[in-house]
From TrEMBL:
The lineage of its organism: unclassified sequences, metagenomes, ecological metagenomes. This is Nucleoside 2-deoxyribosyltransferase.
Length: 134
């Protein structure tokens, strides 16, 4: 299954082990943003952001499952990419599953297919489903 992980950019290092576990289960994790480090010097910030946004939306479109991570401290101001990604995926609701790991932060999070309190629980569920559908 192709899986996209949506989270705050600052949480990318925390999600790398999750990505590795999903890969170990035989899934393709299409969230290349997890390995982004910095903007190339030859691009302006606006050009860089535009390229990242298009790339991320293309990866979400290719995913069968989007998992939004809401763990961690809520930060006011800045960010918001994961929520845009969640909405973009929901707009394709007939084509993808959407899971949430963490707490619901607003009414739209009630629309997810499954919610888990932790990555441990989410990974266990994904593994059980994988075995069931093999």
């Amino acid at each position: 299954m192709n899986i996209y992980l949506a989270a705050r950019f600052r949480d990318r290092k925390r999600l790398r082990p999750v990505r590795d576990k999903l890969w170990g289960m035989g899934h393709e994790v299409v969230s290349s943003w997890i390995d982004e480090v910095r903007k190339p010097e030859f691009l302006t910030t606006e050009e860089w952001h535009r390229k990242l946004a298009i790339k991320d939306l293309t990866e979400i479109r290719a995913a069968d499952l989007l998992i939004i991570d809401t763990l961690g401290k809520l930060v006011v101001g800045g960010g918001g990419g994961r929520e845009f990604e969640f909405g973009f995926a929901y707009g394709q609701f007939h084509k993808k599953l959407i899971f949430l790991v963490g707490k619901r932060n607003h009414a739209f999070h009630a629309l997810v297919d499954e919610q888990f309190p932790s990555w441990t629980t989410a990974l266990r569920y994904i593994e059980i489903c994988r075995r069931y559908y093999e």
